[in-house]
Design a protein that fits this description.
This protein has 98 residues and is α+β, with helices and mostly antiparallel strands. The chain is built from 5 helices and 2 strands. Strands 1-2 form a two-stranded antiparallel sheet.
């Protein structure tokens, strides 16, 4: 087993990523964004049947952890998963369970 001090920065990065994904709504959003190759807030809101403000808060958290990015397309923002480690992790989780 590797020494924690030798890998502390990586362990902290992974722990933060897992914290962001630990909420069921955020995990669902990330899974959906991977499957759809991106989406806007309205589509996410319709799929999850939750208020826009709730979805926006979760998207903000995912953005702050560097998991998703938003690209403006006219009046809307298209959100996509931009972290390849997160993509691999979420795909592995859902390939096992669904």
């Amino acid at each position: 087993m590797n020494n924690f001090k030798d890998n502390e920065k990586i362990m902290i990065e992974y722990a933060e990523m897992l914290k962001a994904l630990a909420h069921p709504v955020r995990l669902c959003i990330v899974h959906g964004l991977i499957n759809c190759d991106g989406s806007n807030v309205s589509n996410i809101q319709n799929c999850l049947n939750m208020p826009q403000s709730t979805i926006s808060q979760h998207l903000s958290k995912l953005r702050s952890y560097g998991i998703i990015t938003g690209e403006r397309n006219g009046l809307e923002i298209i959100y996509k998963v931009s972290n390849d480690k997160v993509k691999a992790l979420v795909e592995a989780i859902f390939n096992e369970n669904i």
